[in-house]
Amino acid sequence: MSTTRTIRVLAVDDHPLLRAGIASVINAEPGMTIVAEAADRDEAIAAYKAHHPDITLMDLRLSKGSGIEAIAAIRSASPAARIIVLTTFGGDVLALQAFKAGASGYLLKSMMRTDLIDTIRLVHAGEDALTLRELDVLESVAMGKSNKIIADDLNLSVHTVKGHVQSILAKLEASDRTHAVVIALKRGILEQ
User: Fold this and answer.
1) pLDDT of residue 4
2) From residue 76, how far is each of 70, 101, 131 by CA, in Å?
């Protein structure tokens, strides 16, 4: 018998069919279960407070309220909450706002069939969760700025910037700065 704890997931999307599909996939996966579903911002916040899931899957475009508002409220109450943004559009400007509000990961709805389970496992394990400062550094790297210029712009030491860059490379499993930017653009962490 495995001693691994089941990953408890909250699914937030205003489309009942999509929520049902997500629940079906997750409940069929060993070591994962859906503990709650929500259709809008207020339901998402209430469900998070009631169930304290390990992972929340959050659609950004809800019919009542926004996913970003829900992320901010959840993270305000539970700073360690791990939230994966679900969106239809790659490079969605809302995705960057969601990361700034506290999202830990990002997944295009078109990629859910192939990447949903792996993304949940990675975020649950603490992978791929860039800090706000790392996002600032990554945006500067994407603009082609050197570590010295980034340090000056962000009022940091060059040593600190190098540390952030190394952390970004590790979290994104990137081989170098350019690869990190390519990965971030592909995942919608950065805008094109």
Assistant:
1) 65
2) 10, 9, 15
Tell me, what amino acid is at 152?
A: D
**Sites in the chain below the pLDDT cut of 70:** 1-4, 89-93, 127, 129, 192
Q: What is the DSSP track for the chain? A: ---PPPEEEEEE-S-HHHHHHHHHHHHHSTTEEEEEEESSHHHHHHHHHHH--SEEEEESB-SSSBHHHHHHHHHHH-TT--EEEEESSTT-HHHHHHHHHT--EEEEGGGHHHHHHHHHHHHHTTTT---HHHHHHHHHHHTT--HHHHHHHHT--HHHHHHHHHHHHHHHT-SSHHHHHHHHHHHTSS--
The reply to whether the predicted model has a pTM over 0.90 is no
How far is Cα 171 from Cα 135, in angstroms, rounded to an integer? 12
How far is 160 from 178, CA to CA, in rounded Å?
19
Residues 85-109: pLDDT tens digits? 888 765 556 777 888 888 888 777 8
